[in-house]
Design brief:
The structure is a homotrimer. The first copy, chain A, is mostly helical. Chain A is 74% helix and 0% strand. Chains A, B, C: Its main location: membrane.
């Protein structure tokens, strides 16, 4: 139940982030919906392909589809000024989505009896795959791989779940809180992963 | 029979559009063929993956592959000036392709007993997916999502077929004519979908 | 045995090329690993999808994954100056990878009893698919389709294997040497495929 709530918060946050980027790029209404949907569901589709689940599972997620549809529509009719004011809230929602999606991805990979490296990749793909496709379709360099510490927390959840495949719901909840917290700390302190180790040359 | 003709006209139009964009971007001969093929077949491959059909169905479409090959080769050996003169004709061919591909995509989704939202997505993916991949591989922002009313007519065909799954061939033909007509009207009057609803802020 | 060596040399070369491009684009450490992996394994995943093999075969290639991981790590800790000095060696490694990957792709397609055009596409996808995804994720126009004669040699191996499906290991070895040699000649003489045939217009 509480999982579902986090999951739908994440879906809404991802849909809004796709829709907002499409509006910044002056895509038309149709483009706004496309980018919103792709950001929300793209990561799960790629993950399913890579871990051997049918991509057509997508169509069973009826409530998720309507949640995304509603979030995109609200984004379109909300004044830009308000959207900017909500930016901090959106960062929290996005962190919740990153965490919920990553954990869900890892659990799917565990179900498929895949090794730990596959579980970690499944986490990351579910957590950031949609954002990557969004950036590519918007013609931008993927900031997720560049700007701040984002994907690493997603991979961390896959790593923990990969080590403890018999994880309980309570433990999962702690992993969830951990990823959200680490992500919010990264944003607040503007943490960055190092670039290449620099030498004099 | 008449379906096949529309379908092959669409294949040729999509292949030509990919090849022309590759030439504008000064891709080499190999790149021209790659972009032509990707534009023609990319949408169908993505649709198959998403509606649970094997992507390897691609290889059975022998005549389609040779049609695309021929269209690309003709594009390469035709003087640029002529290609420019044919531009209006190409717009019509492209509209025929959009319509034929979209209807074909919707019918595949109906065969897979998918719900109406999946049928609409299958239409759009088949109709515009190849063009999206073309734009990404050419390093351009996807104009399909930006410039003029294009994908919406594709989705309209999916919507109609999704509502009337027992559609007859004659009705399908009317849907086909409807999409082609709406697309040509959009081009002629340079219709645009609205961007974000603008507020003072 | 010798195949395996060529294959791992190719894996290392592709991983290094992805990691180096990520560093040029100032991606963070995580982005460097992502781009390295995508360059190495992306082509094989797309090929598997298109020829009807499960994409999840990826996870069985344990040694390949560790090889890529090691190559990326070495790239990160090696001074840039040295990497530049090794550039000529990397071109050779990359040619070995192109050849080994292309042949492997063709053999998979032969196993799937696909027709010759599918075998040629499988060769090219395995040989250059990872590089294409790398360029797209790095926000660059794909040079593979533009700059010099690269993908054609990959396709040549698919063509030869498609014609002689009962090919022996010795013959395969000659195909391998042929592709590596042709690629190195292309680099040395800076061969280019023609662009569009130009007319006065």
């Amino acid at each position: 139940m509480i999982w579902d709530i986090f999951n739908y918060i994440g879906i809404a946050a991802f849909a809004i982030s796709g829709a907002m980027m499409a509006m910044e790029e002056t895509y038309d209404l149709f483009g706004v919906y496309v980018l919103g949907f792709v950001t929300t569901f793209g990561g799960g589709v790629i993950r399913n392909i890579l871990i051997g689940l049918p991509a057509s599972m997508l169509w069973e997620q009826k409530i998720a589809i309507y949640t995304a549809l509603t979030a995109i529509t609200i984004t379109i009719i909300t004044p830009m000024l308000w959207l900017r004011m909500w930016k901090r809230l959106l960062v929290l929602f996005d962190a919740i989505g990153l965490s919920a999606f990553s954990i869900q991805g890892a659990l799917f990979a565990v179900d498929q009896r895949l090794p730990i490296h596959a579980i970690m990749v499944a986490s990351v793909l579910t957590g950031i795959g949609g954002g990557l496709i969004r950036d590519v379709l918007a013609g931008r360099k993927p900031l997720l791989l560049k700007e701040d510490v984002y994907a690493v927390w997603s991979m961390l959840s896959g790593f923990i779940i990969g080590l403890h495949k018999e994880i309980t719901d309570v433990e999962l909840f702690f992993v969830f809180i951990l990823v959200v917290t680490m992500r919010m700390i990264s944003v607040h302190y503007q943490l960055k992963l190092p670039l290449k180790i620099v030498w004099h040359n």
